Amino acid sequence: MDDRLWNGRLDAGHYTADREKYQAAIMEQYRLCVEMADRISARRSLTNTFFLTVNAALLAAAGAVGGTVLRGTPAWGVVVAGLVAVGQCGAWFLLITSYRQLNRAKYKVIGALEQRLPARSYDAEWAELGDGKTLRQYVPLTLVELWIPALFIVFYVAAGVAALKSA
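-> structure tokens emitted (167 positions)
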């Protein structure tokens, strides 16, 4: 791992007094990028919590109402409710994808900034995870996250079809 962690292009000579301001600026930009990547991850987590809560509330409401109310609901009402449920799951799916793209870009920048630092911790960590090439070594959280809204969509479509058939 040492060859991936330590930057062979830099040595102590790169950290002399005349280069101190430059190295401090690089380090500050590096810290800022890492902080922004963490904030994106926190927003992503809050987004997931929000949509899980919305979907749990929808399922709880549907369970509480039961089939008796559905029998009196016109078909267009079931279709509209289903479209709203599927639409918010689609929005959730797109937000997860967007957060993934934002973080991917941030980590590319972090990796580039690490080329100016003595240690390349993200590069070494990624190497330890097999560069993401095999699911046995690294399962991206995004894959798990994307399955959840997709499963809700399948459930809502199946429930809508069943409700329309029984009406």
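The longest helix spans residues 20-72.
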